[in-house]
């Protein structure tokens, strides 16, 4: 989990008593807060609303299925889900989107990311890692429902960790199917869908890979209504052809995700 540090946190990993009063706030969102326990761990707690508590319980359910300590190297590791209102998670450095934005600022020109071989080396690796992580999620009968560069964290080695299962849909032994609590925004939503399925996750992965190649989301300069209309007609961004010339495999992955050519990852 990422964010701005406000207070000094513990430097050394050790036993933690569950008290957050002296921990530094390092991240917050609509449904929860994240505090640093030490350099390797953070704790996530619900914000307190009914929606946030429901989202917290959903994420804990997901980690129970995915496995404690992380059974896949490209998923954010849950170190402890047994506390009633706490999730102890692996600490990461930033989101992929934040890294893309930072690297774009380093460039002295406005050229697209795919023109920079050094940046693209990282983008290709992140795309492969995200696909591998999402494949594992799907193998556990979980639909992520919010795939994107904002939910891909980077660890200290620069590897992707898929995060945020607070809105995910899943099959459970005791409760049966739990539908997703969130839906995709226009630039990641498969046309003609409203819920979350494996296919909507795959479509969103295509949008994430596009962002990895260009540094921005599809049609980032257009209003949502126009994006919806273009996607419905399968009119994909023109720079797909430019990406194809430089990185054909990456372009093909984006295109197939959007066209529905993949039934699974």
TrEMBL record:
It holds the Pfam family PK_Tyr_Ser-Thr. ATP binds at residue 57. SUPFAM superfamilies: Protein kinase-like (PK-like) (SSF56112). Gene3D superfamilies: Transferase(Phosphotransferase) domain 1. GO terms for molecular function: ATP binding; protein kinase activity. Residues 20-265 form the Protein kinase domain. InterPro entries: Kinase-like_dom_sf, Prot_kinase_dom, Protein_kinase_ATP_BS, Ser-Thr/Tyr_kinase_cat_dom, Ser_Thr_protein_kinase. It comes from the Eukaryota. Coiled coil: none annotated. Keywords: ATP-binding, Kinase, Nucleotide-binding, Transferase. This is Kinase-like domain-containing protein. It comes from Plectosphaerella plurivora. The lineage of its organism: Eukaryota, Fungi, Dikarya, Ascomycota, Pezizomycotina.
């Amino acid at each position: 989990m990422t964010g701005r540090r406000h207070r000094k946190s513990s430097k050394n990993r050790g036993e933690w008593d569950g008290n957050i009063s002296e921990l530094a706030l390092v991240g917050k969102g609509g449904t929860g807060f994240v505090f640093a326990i030490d350099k390797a761990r953070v704790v996530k707690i619900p914000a307190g609303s009914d929606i946030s508590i429901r989202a917290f319980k959903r994420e804990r359910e997901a980690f129970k299925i995915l496995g404690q300590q992380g059974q896949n190297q490209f998923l954010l590791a849950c170190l402890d889900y047994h506390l009633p209102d706490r999730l102890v998670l692996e600490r990461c450095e930033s989101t992929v989107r934040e890294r893309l934005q930072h690297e774009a600022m380093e460039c002295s020109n406005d050229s697209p990311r795919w023109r920079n071989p050094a940046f693209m080396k990282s983008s290709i690796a992140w795309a492969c890692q995200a696909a591998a992580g999402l494949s594992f999620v799907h193998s556990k009968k979980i639909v992520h429902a919010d795939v994107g560069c904002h939910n891909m964290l980077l660890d200290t080695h620069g590897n992707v960790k898929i995060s945020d299962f607070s809105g995910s849909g899943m099959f459970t032994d005791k409760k049966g199917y739990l539908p997703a609590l969130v839906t995709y925004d226009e630039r990641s939503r498969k046309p003609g869908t409203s819920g979350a399925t494996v296919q909507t996750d795959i479509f969103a992965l295509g949008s994430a890979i596009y962002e990895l190649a260009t540094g921005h989301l599809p049609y980032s300069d257009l209003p949502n209504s126009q994006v919806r209309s273009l996607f419905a007609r399968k009119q994909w961004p023109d720079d797909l052809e430019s990406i194809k010339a430089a990185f054909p495999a990456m372009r093909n992955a984006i295109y197939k995700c959007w066209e529905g050519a993949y039934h699974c990852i």
